[in-house]
Amino acid sequence: MLPFARVAIIGMGLIGSSLARAIRETMPTVRLTVSDGDPAVRARVVALDLADDVTENAGAAVVDAELVVLAVPVGAMAAIAAEIAGELAPGAIVSDVGSVKARVLADLGAALPGVEIVPGHPVAGTEKSGPDAGFASLFQDRWCILTPAVAGPASDRVAAFWTRLGARVELMDAAHHDRVLAVTSHLPHLIAYSIVGTASDLESVTRSEVIKYSAGGFRDFTRIAASDPVMWRDVFLNNKDAVLETLGRFTEDLVALQRAIRWGEGDTLEALFTRTRAIRRSIIDEGQDTEEPDFGRKH
Amino acid sequence: MLPFARVAIIGMGLIGSSLARAIRETMPTVRLTVSDGDPAVRARVVALDLADDVTENAGAAVVDAELVVLAVPVGAMAAIAAEIAGELAPGAIVSDVGSVKARVLADLGAALPGVEIVPGHPVAGTEKSGPDAGFASLFQDRWCILTPAVAGPASDRVAAFWTRLGARVELMDAAHHDRVLAVTSHLPHLIAYSIVGTASDLESVTRSEVIKYSAGGFRDFTRIAASDPVMWRDVFLNNKDAVLETLGRFTEDLVALQRAIRWGEGDTLEALFTRTRAIRRSIIDEGQDTEEPDFGRKH
After folding, report:
1. Is the confidence at residue A3, as pLDDT, over 90?
2. Which distant-in-sequence residues (6+ apart) come within 8 Å of B179 by Cβ?
3. Mean predicted confidence (pLDDT) in A3-30
4. Is the CB of residue A4 less than 8 Å away from at least one CB of chain B?
5. What are the C-alpha distances in Å from A86 to residues A37, A94, A108, A111?
6. Among A102-111, A265-274, B224-233, B290-299, the least confident range
7. ipTM of the complex
8. Between chains, do B261 and A244 touch, taking CB under 8 Å as contact?
9. Does residue A28 form part of some domain?
10. Across residues B42-66, what is the average pLDDT?
11. Is residue A290, in this structure, part of any structural domain at all?
């Protein structure tokens, strides 16, 4: 028994197109309609045969869908919701894949009164963008967090849908989601963007030297700082409070480290560096990263 | 013609043991003597058959070596140099693999008057430590920076040695090396250690949540923050000025980003995030990282 027989995806970037591929692979009888505002993206979706129908207009994609998944930047959710509001079939459930949840829950609720809304966030992705970058196994064994206002039959169906796609599902309060992800995702991205910017702006060290000797650690940061600019702009603008709070904590800790270096407090440094090694161990034990050195990069 | 027929390595951690393996593979007739102060490490070196001789005492390892490579934390270089000072063969060249060069050049020069000193830094490594973590191809196509006080026949021979090991060699002024690596390696490590510490210290988000949802970006930082604590303590203590200078720049830029988020300046964010993406591209084009999404992690 399929959780949904007719699904619409709005936005066919990395996540939307991975979702389409995963649906095709795990639930091949689902009738899949997708939409994207960009003609180049639509052409690739057709060429890659990722869906049964491809529409220019979001409203046209959702007319008979039982589940509509918005896979657009968080800042575009309200406009897309307004576009589809008059076209949704009775009983349709609207979900999304955005990295910020309180704002999305509020925006979708305001634009779609009376509609069942089950915001979702698959904690998965890569630094690449666009329909060619997607792949079916992206959500395999990754967490998908659902943040409905109230848990019930609608969130149960969406949970069953993600489980079929290979993900592990967790329900969470939207505001708590935003605090957790501020730490595990938003702050790391902000820091990575910032340090890559800093490194490319120095006078005493040339940019070509930064690139040439990046294997010393810097290149890891550039991967994250290669993520989609608009998606991440919207994350920071729409999870402002949690990001600023977490950033404040980080800056405090960094200043303390700076002081320890200035005063030659080797024990403080070594104690922290030993503690952080244990956290890496936990992440590997939890199956959240590979144990292979250097992420398994080829040598 | 081998650059050196008899080589001694002091310290058989990740780098020392990789060096031993690479010598065995590329220059199998080299007579290789190694030393490590830790009996457990020596036992593993014997079991793995990484060298012709294994000594407890650093002095005993160097007696007939043409090249001595110190592969110990930067803070331990002076003591090891003092230990070998009376044992070096006439004409022996002393090198190292430390991530800080001005301090090492000064320390070795003071401890070994009249000895040819060619400090070196292979810009390669993983987050793992110890003799079991090493592998022969670690230096393949990676840069090795040499920072002799004066270039000449000694640095030519050390350059030829690293070239045989598969590395690309560059000569650089020691102080400039320390400024470049402060940006490309030391600051990234400091930031990673700091953010991993911050994330594990929050009250509103549990440590198990941080680990569970780390795939959103955080897990990348934990890899770097799993690097050897003593090695990195010594890097920060011995490259203090360049690290503090670079850290000051970074903090300035981060505060500017913080302000952009607070005031909702989306264009500022998007412009930076677009610029950083281009830097990632350059690093891949230069062969300094894999193009595969997510570093080629398995999905």
Report:
1. yes
2. A204, A205, B242, B245, B246
3. 98
4. no
5. 18, 13, 13, 10
6. B290-299
7. 0.95
8. yes
9. yes
10. 98
11. no
Contact residues on chain A for B184, CB-CB shorter than 8 A: 199, 209-210, 213-214, 216-218
Partners of residue A220 in chain B, C-beta under 8 Å:
188, 192, 220-221, 223-224
Residues 93-122 of B with CB under 8 A from A: 99
Residues 6+ apart with CB under 8 A from B233: A266, A269, A270, A273, B73, B75
Domain holding A181, by residue range, is: 176-264
Q: Are residues A183 and A136 in the same domain?
A: no
Is the CB of residue A287 less than 8 Å away from at least one CB of chain B? no
In chain B, which among 15-74 make CB contacts under 8 A with chain A?
none
Distance between CA atoms of residues A188 and B221, nearest Å: 8
Which chain B residues contact residue A223 at CB under 8 A?
A: 220, 280, 289, 294-295
Quote the tokens at residue B164: 């045989």
Return the pLDDT at A204.
84
Q: How many domains does chain A have?
A: 2
Which residues 6+ apart lie within 8 Å of B47 measured at CB?
A: none
Q: Which residues contact A295 (CB under 8 A, 6 or more apart)?
A: A289, B223, B294, B295, B296, B297
Rounded average pLDDT over A135-159: 97
Residue A299 above 90 pLDDT?
A: no
Q: B156 and B208 in one domain? A: no
| pLDDT score recorded for residue A1 | 86
Mean pLDDT, all residues of chain A: 97
Residue B240's pLDDT is: 98
**Interchain contact, A215 vs B124, CB within 8 Å:** yes
Shared domain check, A185 and A135: no
Going by pLDDT thresholds of 50, 70 and 90, the confidence category of residue B247 is very high
B-chain CB neighbours of A243 within 8 Å are 261
B127 and B192 Cβ atoms separated by less than 8 Å: no
Q: Are residues A43 and A30 in the same domain?
A: yes
- Measured from the Cβ of residue B172, the count of other Cβ atoms closer than 10 Å reads 19
Q: Give B75-80 contacts, CB < 8 A, sequence gap 24+.
A: B75/A266, B75/B230, B75/B233, B75/B234, B75/B237, B75/B238, B76/B11, B76/B234, B77/B104, B77/B107, B77/B108, B78/B107, B78/B108, B78/B110, B78/B111, B80/B10, B80/B11
At which residue do the structure tokens 């993206």 appear? A41
Question: What share of chain A has pLDDT > 90, as a percent?
Answer: 96
Q: What CATH code is carried by the domain that includes residue A47? A: 3.40.50.720
Asked if B298 and A290 come within 8 Å (Cβ–Cβ), the reply is yes
Nearest CA distance, A111 vs chain B (angstrom): 22
A266 interfacial to chain B (CB closer than 8 Å): yes
Residue B239: which CATH number?
Answer: 1.10.3660.10
Which of B189, B191, B299 is nearest residue A191 as measured by Cβ atoms? B191
Any A CB within 8 A of B199 CB? yes
Question: Cβ contacts of residue A240 below 8 Å, gap of 6+?
Answer: B261, B262, B264
